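Reopening this ticket.

The earlier resolution said the output was attached, but the attachment link was broken on my side. Pasting everything inline this time so it's all in one place.
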Amino acid sequence: MQDDLRRVETELLKVVTATDEFVTDVASHLINAGGKRVRPGFCIAAAAVCQTHNQPASLETIRGSCAVELVHIGSLYHDDVMDDASTRRGVKSINAEWGNLRAILAGDYLLGRASELAAALGTEVAGLLATTITELCTGQILELESAYSTERSLEQYQKSIAGKTASLLATACRIGGIVAGAKRPTIEALTAFGRAYGMAFQIVDDIFDVVGSTAQLGKPAGNDLLEGIYTLPVIYALGDASVATELRSLLSEDITIKQRDRAAQLIRTSGGVQGAIDAAQDWTNQASEALALLPNTAGAKALRAAGQHLIERFNTVR
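Inline output:
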């Protein structure tokens, strides 16, 4: 798979290259910064699920992988504008480097390039990616709707992350199955895996925003509390009588850095983190169950390993 991921890197840079050098620089900023490439990896692995022998990914799979990654990177450009983030993946965020207007337009440019790739892969993939972009935006809107609300419910949180994170991981797996010509039950199983993994992935990310450092995350730690995005550890902590009163008094639009740090400390000492870990474990179990009937091929093994890696990651904060 490493060779295929290197092909993805080459294709990503090729796809975003424009006739104008500045547009190319802005569009390729986060591509050059690197990244885990989880979504392309899932697309490649999903396409390989039905392969009995290891072989290079098809060009269609590589381009499908690029499409989902460009949607992801485009959304990060927009996220950093909304969060007023200064760093991303260990480098200056695009908005910090070139300003909000250019960052927004560059994000739109990447979404357009992703749509071009999807259209070339057929109407089903094109429609799927368009729906996913809509779900991603809906998830973000729902998150903003609950900003600074200490009454944010578990249901509201789940609906938001299902759109903003899980939908694209599900689509990465689904596109891999589609372009590989997998049978429909296999495609549905891959989609279910991607969606459940995506839910767990976001919960773990939200846990680390509370317990991790800026150096570990590659982006500002604790930023969600400053932005009024109260994630699962916070929701559970607000239900813990031992910290709820003080925590609720700290969470407001006027929160200071000192208050944020105190709020994070309260969340860590409450049952909030452990409750979120348990929820992530449940979603990871669902992801594993979705793969249970798939053949034990290299592609399936890679997806199962991703689930195991996620478990190992949130075990570090138990």
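Reporter confirms the inline version is readable. The mean pLDDT is 92. The domain at 2-315 is CATH 1.10.600.10 (Farnesyl Diphosphate Synthase).
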